[in-house]
Design brief:
mainly alpha; elongated
Length: about 45
């Protein structure tokens, strides 16, 4: 079995911050796309 690399203690906050920087705008964009496309399906 191969060992999986584990993030060191100093990189965990950096990884979390990176996911927040990418994730928040992504979720916002998905929500906006769904909200703007709802009239197409609801009439």
């Amino acid at each position: 079995m191969s060992e999986r690399p584990v993030a060191s203690g100093g990189q965990t906050p950096r990884i979390a911050l990176s996911w927040l920087i990418v994730g928040v705008p992504l979720i916002y964009g998905v929500v906006q796309a769904i909200r703007s496309s709802l009239p197409l399906f609801t009439g």
